[in-house]
TrEMBL record:
<dbReference type="InterPro" id="IPR050979">
    <property type="entry name" value="LD-transpeptidase"/>
</dbReference>
<feature type="domain" description="L,D-TPase catalytic">
    <location>
        <begin position="176"/>
        <end position="310"/>
    </location>
</feature>
<keyword id="KW-0133">Cell shape</keyword>
<keyword id="KW-0012">Acyltransferase</keyword>
<keyword id="KW-0732">Signal</keyword>
<dbReference type="InterPro" id="IPR038063">
    <property type="entry name" value="Transpep_catalytic_dom"/>
</dbReference>
<keyword id="KW-0808">Transferase</keyword>
<keyword id="KW-0573">Peptidoglycan synthesis</keyword>
<dbReference type="InterPro" id="IPR005490">
    <property type="entry name" value="LD_TPept_cat_dom"/>
</dbReference>
<feature type="compositionally biased region" description="Low complexity">
    <location>
        <begin position="338"/>
        <end position="356"/>
    </location>
</feature>
<dbReference type="Pfam" id="PF03734">
    <property type="entry name" value="YkuD"/>
</dbReference>
<feature type="active site" description="Proton donor/acceptor">
    <location>
        <position position="268"/>
    </location>
</feature>
<feature type="active site" description="Nucleophile">
    <location>
        <position position="286"/>
    </location>
</feature>
<dbReference type="InterPro" id="IPR041280">
    <property type="entry name" value="Big_10"/>
</dbReference>
<dbReference type="Pfam" id="PF17964">
    <property type="entry name" value="Big_10"/>
</dbReference>
<protein>
    <recommendedName>
        <fullName>L,D-TPase catalytic domain-containing protein</fullName>
    </recommendedName>
</protein>
<feature type="region of interest" description="Disordered">
    <location>
        <begin position="338"/>
        <end position="362"/>
    </location>
</feature>
Length: 362
């Protein structure tokens, strides 16, 4: 979809993964906007002063400076992922990722100011992944074909009353859920629950251990589509191999590439070797597909679509890209700063969201 292509370069920076993997690495980050509030009102000192009144005249000025300082918001938002409803439709596994403009001292207060309202509500919770970043995930996948409204009521955070509230509405599209069976060498794609296509594939062949991890194996677990490119350059530089004479060296222009992790795993068109598709695993960690299958999969892909890989001995790390579904629901909730049992799901949003909607639209 064109909407996803516009958002394909938006990537999520997470905690470093111990070992890289797969076909290529790298990406670009869209500059983030920020939201600030208005400053306080200054108090003017008298134009003329009586003898001995200098100290008294300075007092209002000092008070004015303090008021201006106090009138500035102490916490704002630097980025919200994904994009709003006018830019893209997202898959049913999508997370809401909020990055603040500075380290958050009172996480509970900040988290309490964040609200998620879905037309088809499901239980959800926030988890802090750094001192500036918090992620919202649902207990089960979002219902497809609906709108979800996120609102950050920053002005309700104590001491942050001068901040502007921010909101963004997301559009959830078709429920695209794919299962990659690396043992049977096939990917089955279901759309809104109906098996739509079965694509022969070839996954990571294994055989290259690094620090106790076979980096040529595709990671088993629940991945999410993070972006896509019509043609992606894939190289062996993630291995530290840059010499064309090295037997491990490669640099390829690969069509129909849908990224599914931060460590360089994609679903993409096979660069030749079509005889292995559906029969054996021969890739550097990516999921290779037939030209027709890869092009079709690229065309339907939305950020947040679910791609579950099964059958390998290498487990996907939950911090690798948007792999938050690797954590159980109880594990996920333990990352919240709010007391256990605090409600996270909200009722259906009103038709007219609050002022400031999509103030951070990228």
């Amino acid at each position: 979809m064109n909407t996803l292509r516009r958002a394909a370069h938006v990537t999520l920076t997470v905690a470093a993964i111990a070992v890289a993997t797969a076909c290529s690495a790298g990406g670009t980050t869209t500059p983030a906007a920020s939201v600030t509030g208005a400053a306080g009102t200054a108090t003017q000192a008298p134009a003329t002063q009586a003898p001995g009144a200098k100290a008294a005249a300075l007092a209002p000025r000092a008070a004015s400076k303090t008021a201006r300082k106090a009138g500035k918001p102490k916490l704002g938002i630097a980025d919200i992922t994904p994009m709003g409803e006018k830019v893209e439709r997202v898959g049913v596994g999508f997370p809401i990722i909020v990055t603040f403009d500075r380290a958050v001292r009172d996480r509970a207060a900040a988290e309490a100011a964040l609200q998620v309202q879905a037309e088809k509500p499901v239980e959800g919770a926030w988890r802090w992944v750094s001192d500036r970043k918090v992620v919202y995930r649902t207990k089960t996948y979002w219902k497809p074909h609906q709108k979800v409204l996120f609102t950050a009521r920053l002005s309700q955070i104590p001491g942050n009353e001068a901040a502007k509230d921010v909101s963004r509405r997301f559009a959830v599209g078709t429920a695209n859920i794919s299962v990659v069976d690396t043992k049977k060498h096939v990917m089955k794609v279901r759309r809104d629950g109906k098996l739509t296509k079965t694509i022969p594939i070839s996954a990571g062949r294994g055989g290259l251990p690094r620090n106790g991890v076979d980096v040529y194996l595709t990671t088993t677990g629940v991945h999410l589509a993070m972006g896509k490119k019509r043609v992606e350059t894939m190289t062996s530089s993630w291995l530290g191999v840059t010499d064309p004479k090295d037997p491990l060296y490669y640099k390829l222009e690969i069509p129909w590439a849908v990224r599914i992790s931060d460590s360089g795993e994609y679903v993409h068109q096979s660069a030749g070797d079509y005889q292995f598709l559906g029969k054996s695993n021969q890739s550097h960690g990516c999921v290779r597909a037939t030209p027709a299958g890869a092009k079709w999969f690229y065309g339907i892909s939305q950020r947040g679509d679910v791609i579950e890989v099964t059958g390998t001995k290498r487990k996907l790390d939950w911090r690798n890209g948007w792999s938050y579904w690797q954590l159980s629901w109880n594990q996920w909730k333990r990352g919240s700063a709010l007391p256990a049992g605090s409600a996270s799901a909200s009722p259906t949003p009103s038709a007219s969201p609050s002022a400031g909607e999509d103030a951070l639209q990228g």
